[in-house]
Amino acid sequence: MKKETKEEKEKKEEKKNTEAAEKAVVQMETTPSQDSVNAAQAAVKKVKDATQKQSLEARIQYIANYYGLTYESDTAATQQTQTDANANANANANAGVAGANATVQPQQQQQYAPAANAGAEEPAEAGQ
Prior knowledge:
With 128 residues, the protein is mainly α. 88% of the residues lie in helices and 0% in strands. It is built from four helices and no strands. The termini are far apart.
């Protein structure tokens, strides 16, 4: 029984945090200022639901960007780190593939070359 009580308590806390974050974001949208952006950002940090959090952060970021206010989300920083890591991994993986792609590209160009010649010959025939 204690476990259910703990889960219910966590759900109530999460609901309260989500509602508070929603109110803070609405307040920020209504009266945009650096203080309201900061307050909304602080409230959204407490939200655990990733989808809800991302949605609220997107709204904050939109308003902050529109009015030229400062905003840095935890999600954006995390995504940037992941993007950098993926870019490095892809760069290393593609280094070996580049040689294979280099040989494919000239073949594709050769395929287009006859089509260009055929197109160039047609006007010459029409002129004769």
